[in-house]
From TrEMBL:
Transmembrane segments: 6-24, 53-75
Lineage, broadest ranks: Bacteria, Bacillati, Bacillota, Bacilli, Bacillales
Protein name per UniProt: Uncharacterized protein
Domain of life per record: Bacteria
Keywords: Membrane, Transmembrane, Transmembrane helix
Length: 76
């Protein structure tokens, strides 16, 4: 039964890692295509359409919750 728990934790961790890499690549592409003038306008207007913090918070919250649940199962 324990190998199943280890497998679930590994799969969830890999999914979180891959999601983070995809988000980072998306942000990097957006940063490379923006000129300096557009970047200044974007900072002044306070538009954060590409803000990835909420998405990353969700991904890692789910990962943390699943890990805590599996550790609880493992202990009890």
């Amino acid at each position: 039964m324990y190998p199943i728990y280890y497998g679930i934790v590994i799969i969830v961790s890999i999914a979180a890692l891959l999601s983070t890499i995809v988000i980072a690549k998306g942000v990097s592409k957006q940063d490379n295509t923006i000129s300096a003038e557009d970047d200044i306008k974007k900072l002044k207007s306070d538009e954060n359409r590409s803000n990835s913090i909420p998405l990353l918070t969700t991904i890692y919250s789910i990962t943390f919750a699943i890990t805590i649940i599996l550790v609880g199962i493992f202990i009890f």
